[in-house]
Structures are given as C-alpha cells and as structure tokens.
Amino acid sequence: MVIGAGVAGLASAVWMAEAGFRVTLLERRATLGGRTHSIEIPQVDDVADNGVHVMSGSMEELLRYLETIGARDLLAAESGTYARRLLPGGEVDDTSLFRTFAWLPAASISDRLRVWRGYLRMVRDCVRPPHDLDAITAREWLDRIGMPKIARDTWIDFLIIGAHNEKPDLISASAFRNLLVTMARRGRGAARNGSLLYSTVDFTSLFVTGAEKVLANHGCEVRGRAGVKSIVLRENAVSGVSLTDGEFISADAVICAVPPWAVEGLLDAVPGHEQLYSAAAKLVPAPLVSVYLYLNKSLGLETILDALVGGEGVVEQVFDRQKMVGYDGSERGLYSYEITVSAAYALNSLKSSSEIVDTCMRFLRNYYPAAQDAELVHAKVVRMPRATYSERPGTAGARPLQRTAVRGLALAGDWTATDFPSTIGGAAQSAELATRVILDQMRVG
Length: 445
Fold this sequence. Notes:
Layout: E1 2-3, H1 7-18, E2 24-26, E3 38-41, E4 46-49, E5 54-55, H2 60-68, E6 75-77, E7 82-86, E8 92-96, H3 97-103, H4 109-127, H5 138-144, H6 149-164, H7 173-185, H8 187-193, E9 197-199, H9 203-217, E10 221-223, E11 228-234, E12 237-243, E13 248-250, E14 254-256, H10 273-282, E15 284-295, E16 305-309, E17 315-320, H11 321-325, E18 335-342, H12 345-349, H13 353-367, E19 376-390, E20 409-411, H14 424-444
Helix pairs in contact: 1-9, 1-14, 2-14, 4-7, 5-7
C-alpha cells in the first residue's frame, strides 16, 4: 500500500507494481499528482501547472520513473540557459551561466582572482566540511570564504534560490554545500541526459497519466478522497491502515509518501515517532508563485526560458509557452508566458491576485521592450505556499531515512534523506530507496 499520490507516491506504486505486487494507492485529494498537478484555464484554452518546469539531467531516478510510465520522450533538453541582468536604462545583458561562472565577464581582473580564491575555499569546505556549517546560513558561509559580491549576484544566489527555493540568508550553509557535492557527483548524468530538461506537456500528462495506465494494467487500486488516519501495526510489523472514515484496509507493507506537514498522526504507533514528527516540524514550508500571462504580442524570447536576477521578486523565471508546450493562441491573437518566482515570500503575501499580476507586468516591462505597450488579455495566478520545505540552520540530519524501525514500513517524499533538496528529483530518488527497503524485506521474509 502507498499513502500519497505525489511524485514519490506514484513512483513507489508504479515500481512496486512492476515488481509484481498488488498495490493500493491512497490519496486524500480527488486528483493525483500532489504538488505537480495541472489546472484548467478554459478562458484561453490552456492548462496551468502547480509547480516549476525545469529539471536537471542529474535526476536519474526521475528519468527512470518517466521511462517506466512511457513519458520520458515528453521531456526536451535546452542547452541555452541565460542569466539576464537589467542594466541602467532597461538594457538587458545576456550571458550564459557557464561563461558567467568561469569568467565573470563584467568583473575586473582583481575581482576574478578573488572569486577564484573563493571557489578554492568553497571546494575545500565541500571536501572537508567545517563542523559548524549547519549553524550558519549560506550567506554567512560565502562571507567567511571571501566570495565577492559580483559572483553572488551573477550566479551563486541564482543557484541557491533556484535549487532550494529559499533565500541565501535563510538556507543553511550545510544544505548548500550538500547541493554542490550532489552536482559534482552527478555531473556525468547531467552531461549525458542534458543539464536542463523541461516538459513539453502539462504536468498531469507528464507525471500522472502514464502512471495511471501502468497501475491499471497491473490491476492496482487507486482511491481518491481516501484520507488515512493512522498506520496500524501488529507485533512491530505493518498490518494495515485506518482511514479517516473508520474503514480499515489490511496491508503487508506500507510506503508513506506524504509531505512533512502531513505526517503527524499517521505514525503514532511507530517506535520513535516523536523524533520523526520533530524532524518534520523543523522543515518549514517555502512558497513559490507562478503567474500565467496572456498578452496580445510576443516578448521575443530567444529560448524557452529566461532566468532573470534582480527583478521584483528574488529570482524570476520567464517561460515562453509557445516554444515550451506549443501553446497556440494565434486565432485569438494571444501569446502565453509564465513567470515563476522562487522564495516568493513577499509576492505570496499580497492579498489579491490582481496585485500579483500588476507586479509581474511591471517586472516584464522593466526587462522586455516589447512588453511596454503589450496588452494583458488574461492572467492566472497559482500560489504554492507549501511548494517546498526550507532546510534552515539547525536542520542537518533532520531528514529521516526511508527505512523505519517497523518491518514493512518505509518513508518516501522529498523531505526524506536523498541527494537532492526539496525537488521532484529528490521525490523520485526517495521512492527508489523506499521500494528497495520493502523489496529487500519481502525477499528476506
């Protein structure tokens, strides 16, 4: 049995079914997909996604999941990622991220030397991490190693905010160091699969539709609106789950794939559940906001994505949905763009969607000359106050392993211990680790 039908739950259910087990998938909501579901926008014949679109080729477990459900070909690779910096007078300077990282074209020779000295100190701390990295923020770590502001403004802050969905002065230095180590270890996967991958379809079509077909083909049961009250044990082994409506469903094994803010109460019978609840409570939610804008003229993006630093929010990603998903609004004279703002505390705090839309339109007009006289025809705001969790100082070691003290019970989800921050890549890896735990126990049994 699998509890929760986000990416971690879907991948767990699919892989257990592929291994020959009869699976029941329980989801408290009516729809599957968790934080990666889609929302219809009938006014403009489009679909909005409840999540971000960019994935890394280093997320090999996620790619394996998509391969299993027949959706791998729905991803495309994009080689041209840009960090766009607004210059005085509104001029935009495009510089590839690799060239920015390596040479910092706008920096003086002395600044470049200081940056490379900072890089060497960063590598040193990644190889032999100081004991107090979890007690300080990424910003404080960068100060300590003497990383110049130009490197932070040009690419480091972008990496932190984009990967962690958190601000450099809030995320722990330990979490950022772990991200850098993962990037180094999984560099071959990124090179082989493409450093930047994006979906050419909506997220329901990418992550959910194929999984539903696989589960149906294996005769698995998928139940929506099935809230789980608790996991029931007998002699320190799983015997089933109790639903919120009082129904009991027996099971030989359970993979609990719910987010950290939903785990409390489910594991009351599990030895050491207090520590698990305490760990989950340390991982506070971090918001993300996506805004779908439908304009009467093109903005003229050269690639599917502009990654912009220094706008109204913290980091804005502007997606050209004509290039990305093939949106065709030609009959209505519409051009579709999505702005995704990471660590969107200020934007998410605005009361009305119209305020968010106005903010994003001002932002677009700062960066794109074509937006100056563009007319906004329609807009859709997707708020995600719990898009990810934040690994702040003091959370090192908080993410639990997938294996628990109970036979037949494993944890999954991007909040459990994986190579990644709170991402769909981490969710897929957690599913692989959780299914491995259950399969190993079943074989021994």
